[in-house]
Specification:
It is a single chain. With about 190 residues, the chain is mainly α. Helices cover about 75% and strands about 5% of the residues. The protein has two helices and three strands. Strands 1-2-3 form a three-stranded antiparallel β-sheet, with helices on one face. The longest helix is centred in the C-terminal third of the chain and has 75 residues. The chain starts with a strand and ends with a helix.
């Protein structure tokens, strides 16, 4: 007995048409074309492959994000070290300037009061203001790097959640497709 084509009432909805051979009780191939064991197996294997690839890629991305986070933390530490060295240099220069000013005042024979003292105090105030600005800059700059580290870690965690969501979507989509194929097979085989 030869194969004959049945018009699929679901045509135009992505299900296509189906050829049925009543003597062999087999269906055509292709997505939506029938619920043959090969089609179902192919769909399931494809879904498993998609999930596995997503998991592998997510792990790679998570590792990349974690690396970026560690680099940002390292940059924060380096920034703090550099700023601390700058603060030490400001204080050293201020102490050196104060010593030079005292020596100059003492050498000149002036009393350590009045204008010379005011000049020295003003120099010290300016140095401490520079130190305060350097400390603020250090803390702010380091916090930017630490924030970047947090963002990178959040991206890594999000990537792992995306795999879960993607896997669930793939399973549901594949399950729905297999169920449609099964129902069409039942419909056409009677």
């Amino acid at each position: 007995m030869g194969a004959f084509n049945l018009v699929n009432p679901y045509q135009g909805q992505g299900l296509g048409t189906m050829a049925v051979n009543p003597a062999l009780k087999s269906t055509g191939t292709g997505v939506g074309g029938g619920a043959g064991a090969g089609t179902i197996a192919s769909s399931v294997i494809s879904a498993i492959g998609d999930i596995a690839i997503s998991a592998i890629n997510a792990k790679r991305y998570k590792n990349t994000y974690e690396f970026n986070a560690k680099m940002a933390e390292l940059n924060a530490r380096m920034y703090k070290l550099s700023a601390n060295a700058e603060i030490r240099n400001i204080r050293k220069k201020a102490a050196s300037l104060l010593s030079s000013q005292r020596a100059a005042v003492a050498k000149s024979g002036l009393a350590m009061e009045g204008s010379p003292i005011e000049v020295m105090m003003k120099s010290q105030e300016e140095a401490e203001t520079d130190v305060i600005y350097a400390e603020i800059n250090r803390d702010y700059g380091a916090s930017l790097y630490q924030t970047q580290a947090g963002i990178e870690r959040a991206k890594g965690a999000s990537t792992m959640r995306d795999v879960s969501t993607s896997a669930t979507k793939t399973i549901l989509s594949t399950g729905g497709e297999v169920y449609k194929q099964y129902q069409l097979k039942k419909l056409y085989e009677g």
